[in-house]
């Protein structure tokens, strides 16, 4: 056996050891409780006093163990980081739900700043009430019920980690209350307002002061049209979309025999604007062939991967993006999707992302008197398109609630959540909703109330100059 150093004393053989670190004058101790070695500082420089303190520490730890209390206290922030590490380990194994990203953000942005320096076994009712006050200050408002619920789920993960590591017992785990303000629905758009938005976009794009601004406005127009067509969640669900995440089929309706695959879809890439008019022997126009594209977007949703169905407008937008961003005529939507191209869809011609789109979108809506709902006074946001889409397909086409729930990645109830096995692709025909899309993408002359305030002012200034 190696010779013991003068700075090491075995008080109880293989049970309690006193020692001093080379860089410290204070005595430390190691002691065993329930088969586990624990470390603590005696905070004393006198050896004899330190021996007695070490015995006390071991005795207190044994009493805590007998009383079903945690033997060692640890800082909340340390256990929270261990919880994040466990989540990351599960993610590497492909076992982590998307919600872990939300929980980790809550840990970093709220829990550690507010509770980090407290001992995990000292988090009691008073500490949680203080946390509620501190959280509201950080947020600048009282959190919604759903937000509080997410915070409580995160706290429970941390408490379970502490219990697993012996830093807390189930007996002294605090009970969490889920209270919060009632969540408010986003303001929506009427069909008429959707028509006005789409009618105003092209001219607004042209009036961009620079090429970079016009590119950003173009991309916002693409983004808005696909939001309206699909009802997808705004944000990363679409903005992180890559060409490899897209599959599409173009179906022929009431057409003569063509080269089709086994599912009845055209094999070649057909553009809707390439239809050829044909006449019979008497010069009568033969009814045009109708192409019906179905675009399947594989998105990384709020809780899991899912498929979102897009139709004519989504197909049109994607082809426009390809035409703008890939000047090489050899690059087509068909090749990009079939070759699993890793490029991102929502990029400008110069490769830029859709920048500060919230502010840009606010300015666009404000300019056209559409920023606030005239009935509720609530501000419109990108999520308002999701509500408008849902209302339209239910009202105009009577799409079954189950199908629209799957399209949107939500659940109408427990049955759909736990038992429905239908896939996004399976409900594609049911959510095609031609009447809704015809209404949503109907071209109109913009009513005066929605016309550009800025343009009106410029026109008035020009008229005044002419008079003078």
Helices and strands, with pairings:
Blueprint: E1 8-12, E2 16-20, E3 27-33, E4 36-41, H1 47-66, H2 76-92, H3 99-115, H4 125-139, H5 145-164, H6 191-206, H7 211-230, H8 236-239, E5 246-253, E6 278-279, E7 285-286, E8 290-300, E9 305-310, H9 312-325, H10 333-338, H11 357-367, H12 383-397, H13 401-408, H14 414-418, H15 434-440, H16 453-467
Q: Structural class, please?
A: alpha+beta
CATH superfamily of the largest domain: Intergrase catalytic core
- What is the share of helical residues? 40-55%
* Number of helical regions: 16
CATH class of the largest domain: Mainly Alpha
CATH architecture of the largest domain: Orthogonal Bundle
Overall shape:
elongated
Could you provide a short overview of the structure?
With 468 residues, the chain is an alpha+beta fold. It has 16 helices and nine strands.
Explain this structure to me?
With 468 residues, this protein is an alpha+beta fold. The chain folds into three domains: 8-66, no CATH class; 76-164; 191-453, Orthogonal Bundle (hpI Integrase, Chain A). The protein is 45% helix and 11% strand. The protein contains 16 helices and nine strands. It has helices spanning 47-66, 76-92, 99-115, 125-139, 145-164, 191-206, 211-230, 236-239, 312-325, 333-338, 357-367, 383-397, 401-408, 414-418, 434-440, 453-467, and strands spanning 8-12, 16-20, 27-33, 36-41, 246-253, 278-279, 285-286, 290-300, 305-310. The strands form three sheets. The protein has a four-stranded antiparallel beta sheet with strand order 1-2-3-4, covered by helices on one side. It has a three-stranded antiparallel beta sheet with strand order 5-8-9. Helix 3 (99-115) packs across helix 5 (145-164). It is elongated. The protein starts with 7 loop residues before the first strand and ends with a helix. Mean pLDDT is 83; it is low at 269-276 and 414-421.
